[in-house]
Amino acid sequence: MMIRHRTIAPSAPRLSELDALRGIAAFLVLLQHARVMGLDPRPFDNPLLERGVHMLMHFSPFRVLEFGRAAVLFFFVLSGYVLTRALLRNGSPGLLAFAAQRSVRLLLPVAASVLLSAGLYFLVADPALLNGALRGRTIDIWQVPPGVGDILRESTLLLTASDPAKLNPILWSLVHEWRLTLLLPLVLLFHGRIWWLLALGCVGMALGAMGSGSENRVLLGEHFHSTVVSSLYFTLAIASGAALALAGPLPALAPGQRLAGGLAALALFGLASDVAVYIASVLLIVLAQQPGGFQRLLRRAPLVWLGQVSYSLYLVHAPVLVASMVLLHGELPLWAGLVVGAVAALAAAAIMHRLVEVPARDLARWAERRLRVRPRSTASPRPGQNLQPLWAAEGGLFRHPDRPA
């Protein structure tokens, strides 16, 4: 069956369906942490039921509720895709400007979430309860009183396995995403060479594996230099998303192709393989942009809103869940306290998005404009010479140097 291609206009709006996917992934991480904290009813008295639930949670898309890792890896792939897509349409601002923009965009909300967790600790923490009835249910938050050094270290993402996050343990993934996207404009050099980009991603993943990187583990090295090697383990995730953006317009799939792609993505998300999750993430990004029922579902207002607050939700949900458990301990059953905590996390995410994330995004754009490299054209072009950079957007695509405008 023939595959048709669609073009993307330079002024194409933000893809709300991708925001919705990010929101769903963030909410799944919240559910996974709530399960670990006390929403999991296992073990069951019935061995057959216990076995069935085990199979479902380990060998199906529900695996994300058991481990949460697939959602985090999806974040990496999606970041590689949307950031590269933006670079294709707008051109590279220069490495310094892009790194400054990414640092401001990511680190200001990170710092706010760390301060929120520290504030909640001093307001509601009960060390006797945290080390007693709730021991093992707080995903290692608030095990010791936080100090100024802890706040500064976590706010700047200077984390290692020997000195991990004490206030917000989900920051391990931001350590890697921040590092790997600082130099993302370099992927524009791989236009027309996406297999080389993927090959380098595989090499990076292999080097990270040599440095103790592996699946289903929170990966941070014992020391700073080794945690940088750990970051290399996730290069294939960013490269996969970037390669999809560099490949050009997405194919317009027939209904049968969309169904087959959806089944493949579901199956791949159920495998205990990071590479399988990367492939599934790419398929999901492609399927979300196909006209049809799935895209219409993702564009519904509640999911779009969830996508808008997804970064804030990812950052604040863990300390808010723990605070709710502590505050409501003895007043409500544990599961009810966690449900209240999940609702409170959504409310906190909305507030943080409005008060911190949006201003951080505006400040990041200002920093990029101030530091953007301005193209120099001191000489007139020779006849037939095109001074436009190879990454200049033309209808959402690279303009090939040998292709007429």
How would you describe the overall organization of this protein?
- The structure is a single chain.
- With 405 residues, this protein is mainly alpha-helical.
- The chain has one domain (25-39, 67-371).
- The chain is built from 17 helices and four strands.
- It has helices spanning 16-39, 47-58, 63-67, 69-90, 95-124, 127-130, 148-155, 171-181, 194-210, 224-232, 235-246, 255-269, 274-288, 293-298, 301-308, 310-328, 334-371; strands spanning 4-5, 251-252, 393-394, 397-398.
- A hairpin with a 2-residue loop joins strand 3 and strand 4 (397-398).
- It is globular.
Query: How many structural domains are formed by the residues?
Result: 1
What fraction, in percent, of the residue positions are helical? Answer: 55-70%
Mean pLDDT: 87
> H/E order of the elements?
EHHHHHHHHHHHEHHHHHHEE
As laid out across the biggest beta sheet, the strand order is 1-2
Distance between the termini: 30 Å
The global form is globular
Helix/strand/pairing category: mainly alpha
Strand content: under 5%
- Describe the main β-sheet briefly: 2 strands, antiparallel
SS summary, helix count:
17
How many DSSP E strands?
A: 4
| Uncertain runs | 1-12, 378-405
Radius of gyration: 22 Å
